[in-house]
Amino acid sequence: MAAVLNDAFYLQDLHFTIDGMDTHYFLKLGSVESDLSLMGMTVGRRTLETGVNVTVSQVNAVLNGRTRRITDIRLQYGALSLNTRYGSSLDEEKARVLELARQRAVAQAWTRERQRLREGEEGSRAWTEGEKQQLLGSGKVAGYDGYYVVSVDQFPELSDSVNNIHFMRQSEMGRRYTLITRQVAALSNSVNFLPSSCSTK
């Protein structure tokens, strides 16, 4: 199975523990046909003599207006899972893996929030009584979503951390973005008035 990982790009900062599996992601450019030929399969699952479980899935996807065939090969041995994707760009694959991580983190955050209310504890924010009942009943509150506290651009290892999620309305996100924009603008203006001796070259 070394042939599958040969010349593949490793998404180094995007490895997670998912359902007890040490999960890693790779991207491989070029055709998948030669690797599929080596494995003797095009889709489905089989267990090799070495004990490695191989799962191959293929789907046609529209990315940036173009239809492409996406192939995923998953190698699983014990608690190790190696996932290699063919047919995407590096940026597309990073974005996909990050979004999957965000979805896991948000789902875990809703589960934890619901459990807190069930145990009579305070939630992570001041929910109204109606919102509490909705959360206890359906597991979510309409109009809210989970957002990162710390940017995963700088700390990608926090992208699936339940502790890096807080719940906000979309309108609150808009106000937060406006505030940050104003702060950045104010900082930029102050930099413009620095003495020339402080400028960098």
Automatic annotation (TrEMBL):
Query: A Gene Ontology biological process annotation?
Result: heterophilic cell-cell adhesion via plasma membrane cell adhesion molecules
Going by the UniProt record, its keywords in alphabetical order are: Disulfide bond, EGF-like domain, Repeat
Biological source species: Hucho hucho
Q: Name one GO cellular component term.
A: neuron projection
Is tRNA-binding a UniProt keyword of this protein?
A: no
Q: Does the keyword Zinc-finger apply?
A: no
The cross-references to Pfam families, in alphabetical order and at most eight, read: Teneurin_ABD, Tox-GHH
Q: What is this protein called?
A: Tox-GHH domain-containing protein
Domain Tox-GHH, chain residue ranges per copy: 92-169
